[in-house]
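Exercise: predict the fold of this chain.
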Amino acid sequence: MSKSKKDKISDYKTNVMRLLDAAGVGYNHYSYADTDAVSGMDAAKAMGQNSEQVFKTLVTVGKSGEHYVFVIPVNAELDLKKAANAVGDKAVSMIKSKELLPLTGYIHGGCSPIGMKKPFQTVIDESCMLFDTIIFSAGKIGYQVEVAPDDLKRLVNYSTADLTEYL
């Protein structure tokens, strides 16, 4: 990689990074934009990170009509019953991909719990507490940020719960 391209990547800022900067939250950032990674597991591998520490952001709708955000490790699946229980709704289901951008401001594969168009009830899998930091989307495909769960609280009002089933 030429020095100028590397500098562009290291100097690149997403809106999530700008929000972290504005809140005075320290973070590391990663890019896998120049790889063929398409899944969260691919992204973790491309970044050389532990897939238990790399999280994906999922948006659901409850039977109540409310929208909820769940943040879980990329090596796991969201257990919809556990998720519904965590937010006190009768049931939740994943929203359709085409609904994501107008609802959150993010596209599929680049959704972050930070900086959505409006705040949604957010729950992070309790496994996040096993790590000093977790890694999640920086709001654009190919870019991730690493933040301490306690520091994330400065930008996202979230709770933790057991949300996953492992494959």
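Check your answer against the key: The longest helix spans residues 3-11.
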